[in-house]
Amino acid sequence: MYILGIDTSCDDTSAAVVTDQHQVLSSIVNSQIKLHHPYGGVVPELASREHLRNMVPVVETALFTAGLGFTDLAGIAVTIGPGLIGSLLVGLYYAKAVAFVHQIPLVGINHLEGHILSILLEEKRPEFPFLALTVSGGHTSLYLVEDYGIYRSLGQTLDDAAGEAYDKVAKILGLGYPGGAALEKLAREGVKNRIGFPRAFLAPNSYDFSFSGLKTSVALYIKRWEQEQKQSQQVKIADIAASFQEAVVDVLAQKLIKAWESTGTRSVVIAGGVACNQALRDRLQQEADRYGFAFFYPRPAYCTDNGAMIALAGLYRLTRGERAEGTLDVRSRFSIEELAPGRKHEG
Ligand code: KG4
Ligand code: ZN
Fold first, then answer.
1. Measuring from each residue's beta carbon to the nearest atom of ligand 1, which residues come in under 6 Å?
2. The whole model's pTM is what?
């Protein structure tokens, strides 16, 4: 059984073919980073236009790589939200057209469900229930994943997402957009405890996050540093990057451990673009060794946006008989709670 997964939620045009054994036969991602780079962020209108341009070749390449045609597909899964409306529309209406023409079952997928389940594309997989921390450019959320489709939200960011904080600080440091990976690279040359940037733990038992105070604190520090210390090089720019990263990683790790202690799950999973970060992976691996939980993270290509995770979520939903109605529409906001079993997506 072959499922085609399509994701156009933000600035990547992605398509992949996944089997019912979770094998990824192809995963094609057309990145728009170069297009948006000069603007320091994603320009929604440009993103939609670029998706239109790339949608057909990306899907054709995914099918070609898998050695399949449309008629071989048992289903199509397409992201319907959350994300940029114009971008999502391209993916959904393309999928609707193809599904209609070839009479293929179609299902709409929540992008966050894709990230949560992305670890199941790997051979080394956790068993349910597990804790999942999704950290990306748009989201930072902690879930108790009880089973396919059953996600209990424990906490989320109250302001900036972790990736957004990385991107904003990277921009101040002149590292370009999106700057998460570049900032990590710079941080490797710095001393992580050089500057004690603030950590927001919020209420004692809160699993919510807040990164905007940290971002402001780093921005103010850099302003002062440029005036007073830059010349002397007592504190290097890499030290600032490393200290910022340490503050982010520290909060994520501490909250995750607390949640693990209170839920008693065996396994902890991270997903989303920031899950590519080696400092975060290393820290959580250390904690896993210390506390005795099993720690899982997908390979980088499945951490960042991709069609394979959408196909996988689609496989589960199509297998249990879900089908998109003709009125299915995109949603810029789409909370994971709305996926509660038995609840229908509204357009
Ligand atoms: O999951 P993703 O591809 O897209 C969203 O759904 O947002 O995540 C992109 C985010 C960006 O903010 C990017 O800067 C961040 O992930 N990112 C990283 C790293 N690689 C990507 N952040 C920190 N360290 C990295 N190595
Ligand atoms: Zn994403």
1. 10, 136-138, 163, 166-167, 178-181, 184, 272-274, 276-277, 304-305
2. 0.95
